[in-house]
Amino acid sequence: MEEQPGGNRGRAALWSRVGESKIIRALAPAQKTAENYLLMIYPIVKYGNPVLEKPAEPVTEFNDELKKLVEDMFESMYEAKGVGLAAPQIGISKRLAVIDVSFKEDPSAKLVLANPEIIHKEGKQTQSEGCLSIPEFREQVTRAKTVTIRAQDANGEWYEKTGEELLARAFLHETDHLSGKLYISHISALKRDLMKRKIRKLMKAGEW
Ligand code: NI
């Protein structure tokens, strides 16, 4: 999910734009040693790629490879100025997503969602919503205001968490991604068709 307008945009703008896949050297936050780790910044897959519209496969192995992927997903999300990123958005069809609605402000806000399920929804909120895979577009989307998920963390431990407002929205948006569903399925057919037409134009012009 894209950052809300306002928010941390100033700081986020310090990060360079997402382009081709690249590798950066950084300290893995989980490690207290001074060892360097190679982090991979993945390019974000855009709307039109079929990987975004097919249900992803469950995560079955919680090994070092998965932990590395999770760290890479956080870095790729921050680089793209997002507050949520699902694995299909980097071309990996796995039921895995990362969320940080604090955008690096609060380390405890970093959430790993492996095999997430929505177990409770309550209330309503209508806010502007965007998606890193549909850049430059935003629409008003009505969703539940309070949402509880059940998911596994990077170690495979099950947990439950309730989020409100932006976090509730992120839970729904990212879990949707893992079912091959995009936020535009929650807007009117008229607005969706208009958006698709604009995107097709951009594709034709080679700007997508
Ligand atoms: Ni998205």
Key structural traits:
Peptide Deformylase; two-stranded antiparallel sheet; binds nickel (II) ion; alpha+beta; 5-stranded antiparallel β-sheet; 208 residues
Summarize the structure.
With 208 residues, the chain is of the alpha+beta class. It has helices at residues 9-12, 64-79, 165-178, 189-204, and strands spanning 22-26, 37-41, 84-86, 96-99, 111-122, 125-129, 139-143, 146-152, 158-164.
Describe the protein in words:
The chain has one domain (22-204): Peptide deformylase (Peptide Deformylase). Helix content is 24%, strand content 25%. It contains four helices and nine strands, in the order αββαβββββββαα. β8 (146-152) and β9 form a beta hairpin. The longest helix is centred in the middle third of the chain and has 16 residues, at 64-79. The chain is globular. The protein starts with 8 loop residues before the first helix and ends with a helix. Residues 7-20 and 31-36 have low confidence and may be disordered. Bound molecules: nickel (II) ion (NI). Residues 1, 131-133, 173, 177 line the site of nickel (II) ion (NI).
Distance between the termini: 18 Å
Strand order of the largest sheet: 3-4-5-8-9
* Name of the CATH class: Alpha Beta
Structural class: alpha+beta
At the fourth level of CATH, the homologous superfamily is Peptide deformylase
Helix content class = 10-25%
In total, how many beta strands? 9
- Succession of helices and strands: HEEHEEEEEEEHH
Question: How would a textbook summarize the main sheet?
Answer: 5 strands, antiparallel
CATH fold node name: Peptide Deformylase
Give me the CATH architecture, please: Alpha-Beta Complex
Overall number of domains: 1
CA radius of gyration: 17 Å
Bound molecules: nickel (II) ion
Mean pLDDT, all residues: 89
- Could you list the spans in which at least 5 consecutive residues all have pLDDT below 50? 7-20, 31-36
Number of helices: 4
Question: What would you call the shape?
Answer: globular
Query: How large is the share of residues in beta strands?
Result: 25-35%
